Amino acid sequence: MAPEAFMQTQVAILHHDYPAQVREQIEARLERLAKFHERLVSVRALLERQNEEHRVEIVANAGHGAVLVFDARGGTFAAAIEAAFSGMEGLLKKHNQKSTQERRRENRHA
Fold this sequence. Notes:
It contains two helices and four strands; from the N terminus they run βαβββα. It is α+β, with helices and mostly antiparallel strands. The protein has a single domain (3-109), classed as Ribosome hibernation promotion factor-like (Double Stranded RNA Binding Domain, 2-Layer Sandwich), CATH 3.30.160.100. α1 (20-32) links the parallel β1 and β2.
């Protein structure tokens, strides 16, 4: 069974009513983040609107105590979402690469 089958996702919306389809769209994108890190345990998104600014925070638990956070803000909801997801993808790729290199190093010395 694929590791992402065990990953938990959560979407929290603060102080604003976004349409129900937005929650579903964000959950689907959160699930796709699993392809960027092989040991992703959980990932959650926080959506918030403060006056005219939209904020999207994504928090990913990459296992072994590693928690990655990316916070993006934008004048439009779409801009904040795109910035948050592309930023988190970059963090996950970088962390996954680092973790893989450390495991290889440990295996050589074992």
